Amino acid sequence: MIAHHKAYVELLDRFKHIALLESIEEVLTWDSRTYLPNCASEYRADQIALLTGMAHEKRTDPRIAQLLNELDADSINTEDISVEAVNLREWKRDYDKQVKLPKQLVEEKACTAVKAQSTWVEARKTNNFGAFKPWLKKTLDLNHQTAECLGYENELYDALLDLYEPGVLTCDVAPVLSQLRNELVPLIQSIAGSSKKPDISILERETSKSAQRNFASEVAAAIGFDFNQGRLDETAHPFCIGLGLNDTRITTRFNENYLPGALFGVIHEAGHGIYDQNLPKEHYGTPMGQYVSLGIHESQSRMWENMVGRSRSFWEYWYPKACEYFPVLKTVTLDDFYFAINEVKPSLIRVEADEVTYNMHILIRFELERAMLNGDLSAADLPGAWKEKYRKYLGIDVPNDTKGCLQDIHWSGGMIGYFPTYSLGNLNAAQLFRKAGEELGDLDDMFQAGDFSTLKNWLTEQIHSQGRRYRSGKLIEVVTHEPLSAEPLIDYLKTKYMPLYGL
Amino acid sequence: MIAHHKAYVELLDRFKHIALLESIEEVLTWDSRTYLPNCASEYRADQIALLTGMAHEKRTDPRIAQLLNELDADSINTEDISVEAVNLREWKRDYDKQVKLPKQLVEEKACTAVKAQSTWVEARKTNNFGAFKPWLKKTLDLNHQTAECLGYENELYDALLDLYEPGVLTCDVAPVLSQLRNELVPLIQSIAGSSKKPDISILERETSKSAQRNFASEVAAAIGFDFNQGRLDETAHPFCIGLGLNDTRITTRFNENYLPGALFGVIHEAGHGIYDQNLPKEHYGTPMGQYVSLGIHESQSRMWENMVGRSRSFWEYWYPKACEYFPVLKTVTLDDFYFAINEVKPSLIRVEADEVTYNMHILIRFELERAMLNGDLSAADLPGAWKEKYRKYLGIDVPNDTKGCLQDIHWSGGMIGYFPTYSLGNLNAAQLFRKAGEELGDLDDMFQAGDFSTLKNWLTEQIHSQGRRYRSGKLIEVVTHEPLSAEPLIDYLKTKYMPLYGL
Questions:
Q1: Across chain B, what does the average pLDDT equal?
Q2: Residue B214 C-alpha, separation from nearest chain A C-alpha, in angstroms
Q3: Residue B449: domain span
Q4: Could A43 and B244 be called an inter-chain contact, meaning their C-beta atoms sit closer than 8 Å?
Q5: Backbone region of residue A237 per phi and psi (left: phi > 0; alpha: psi in -120 to 50; beta: other values)
Q6: Which of A95, A243, B95, B167 has the fewest CB atoms within 10 Å, i.e. the most exposed one?
Q7: Is residue B162 included in any domain, yes or no?
Q8: What value of ipTM does the predicted structure carry?
Q9: Residue B40: its chain A contacts at CB < 8 A?
Q10: Would an 8 Å CB–CB cutoff place A301 in contact with chain B?
Q11: pLDDT class for A344, splitting at 50, 70, 90?
Q12: What is the CATH number of the domain that holds B463?
């Protein structure tokens, strides 16, 4: 039994210790994004760098290689999905990656991320791309170095993408995004040509922050986010983060003149949170207790946000409650509300984009970061290139960088190669959601009756409880019995939006 | 030059590294008292224990003894107050203490504190002493062990008191507290016999949490608390904590039907915060950048809270502003408000006690924890003994444990021997405040004109900037040219309260 092998037990201990250390780093990260005083960011960067360095040292301890060797981790059958085989395989993969990165680079990346992020927060507030530019340059440089250290199949970008979506290559993603564009641009155009338009002014009626917070919290709890193991806080850019066992926190931003922002933001982050909270706790700190990839993570958030949260059946259940929280909605019919929250319209802000245009936002970021990384685009030219692409792909003018290239937190956090996972998330979500409907029966009937736990439990069983047992592509195949394809997403979008717009 | 000696430079590096590590622990502590989800406290305890253990290991590294030895730290002239002499002397003191404590005990204390505290929060809410009792027992046991490890002059309690107030013995504190009691009980009785009574119902008029928060924040900023290097949050038990360089956070609790609670709580914690924020930053992480003792820390908070914050001149400046924040005060005269916030009346809650009766609350806690530690009182008998003492010393009945022995956070946090430092704080504050008046001129004129920086700057120069250059008793002597005495406090209280009550 590998499980009782001394070397395996030592590895378990080591990785649980590393998880403990890294969870502390997550507390510092969460705090630095929510509540850190202005002047404290330099010292916080030192605190984070200390932990990052310590964790990196432990992750790259040659003893690990020795133990993996002793257990013959290299020769594990790739079809073996026992707990021990999964852990050993993934430890091996992580170790091989980690040892390629010098400690100094890892520490500098962590340190830079904190400083860049606090600069970004100000730069975004004041529409000052110039202030952020040197940090973007530095971030690109550090990512360039990272990719060189890790090695790559075809291009630098491959190495970075693999950090977020193990096993997926740039040349896998690029055509899928193009396919989506080819299929969706005509749909977007048809919709634009439709005379049916929702009245979205109803969503701009003033609703208090506290009512928004309370309603969103009630919804989040109802779909399965456990507030005894989590929290909701307020930040400029919403995110979800695990700070340790039984501690998963989400954030949102409130706009009293735009109800859907925080509401769907919370449902989205709660989707991430539910995944995190339902990973197998007994495996916490080991691959079997970890998420598969960002594309799988995002499938959970996008499914809850859009396929559930923007469905008509969902609102048949929630709308009466919403009208109690927000009396300004009492004069609005459910049909009008449903149409308004599903408006399709090219827009500036990714996180507020509708389901149909969303992937265009991703395509733009993917192309820009890939170009910057390859040296085809300089950091200084980013704002111009951003504006050009928005004009080209979405037909809209970007009035300033705050609503343009400064809107997302990712680059300031050092993350290049992350954006494509959002589109992978949408694709995964559509394919999983279709399968759930086939297996569970009519999901709309359930949502209408306020039953969200049937779907949530199915996701826990199929996805959450699996930890890193499979790579993302394989997991989708195991669950849906088909390889990932763009068809379910395109079909879902057409089925939903064509009738809505009378097409 | 010691400053350039290789051994000294290595010690500096080592202790700055330890400070970095310990500051991370403070972030976890702050978070666990403010925002930690219910279910996460066990894992949080593990996180904290990990850091505590690591810091303890580094603090007790034999290399430190070797370096101190190399620099002859033992033979430094006690009169030498150069930066290097102070650092070496205090490092030596700390090291000698630390090596006496086994790592396992240190970790268990840290771990127990987190669990005990989360139990206490619930126990306090539900008036359930039974739930907290086993944790109190364990805390006493761990403190007993700590004292035995450290060694003591006359009794176990000495070893614990010395942790918070270096160099002070139980037999120094006990008579001072008795002296205060002997002097103040007649004053309390005279006041009780006075026909003049404030109308405190004016303080119970409803005022919103947000107005309270905004006003208290404005006051805190005006007296010198820098919100760019700090925050204000909400907790059951108010506290102040440093989370690293330029990061000092205070907390309070709001009661919409009792204005002074949060208001003076914030001024109190801001007083602590101002001390922390004005320690010499260039010495951060070394004794020269650390506070002297809790009795000195408390002198800063109590001075701002009471001697400044409850003075008539302070309110001559602030009252018009207060009336804008709290329109319910517009029908109340300044005289009536001033009298109300200075009501003297035996009461149940320490942190809400007036200046005159306050030290009785401390005496009670001091006697009870000393008795429990010595084995003269069992944890199970605490609630009864608590009630008895309140009847005896303050003449009041304690209706339940929530308002009795469960009210304070200290014991749940593992701190025994801490309470006397509050009274030492009052004594220090009175003696320093008298001296400030002698040196700076009429403080009332300054307060009335909204000038709080003259006093704040004097405190920074005299106290904050000194770090741990002197022990508390010596510092008071250096600044005031007199040894600590109860006379300034007694004089201050009589001068303020006798006219107020027409005596």
A1: 95
A2: 17
A3: 170-500
A4: yes
A5: beta
A6: B167
A7: no
A8: 0.90
A9: 229, 243-247
A10: no
A11: very high
A12: 1.10.1370.30
